[in-house]
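fyi for ur records
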Amino acid sequence: MAFGLCTLSFVLRAFCCVPERGPDETTNKVQTPSTKHQGPRPKTEDQNKMKLISISLGSWLLGLSAILLTFYVIEGANLSAADIKGVTVMSLITAALLFSLAYAPSLFWLRKRLGGCRPAAVFPLASALVLNLPVFLIGILAIGRTLAPTEAFAFIGAFVLMGTAFGLGFVWNYQDRTI
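which gave:
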């Protein structure tokens, strides 16, 4: 559990690093934004990071609900708090690592390589199928060792859903942005 919290803390710090603004060197005053209305403000890097974190959390919650729904349908009312806690922690750790180390960097690279988010279908497909290959491999190899076949396929299906949701959210958020 401590490892999961440390991983989550690391990922959130990596996404939310905000350099502190020091005083202006010429006047020794803290810079304040102008109060005049200057039209719509451009999106800051902090807002983009928060949107990326929101997309990640929304994708994870969608996948977690798919896993829990699958288990509820298969096992019925026999889901215990330990089962729910185990699935939550396992999916959170895996999703945090995938979102921060695979999905976001790869989709930013793909966006830069293609010169934008066109064709839009490439991004959800890449995050759902290509970037989840390690998850597919781990899930299939775990059948019979640590996971039952239904658990492994629920895990794989949930990550396909998470990848698709992350890719769609990425395209929705970054489609009109300059590179």
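Residues 45-174 form one domain. thats all i got for now
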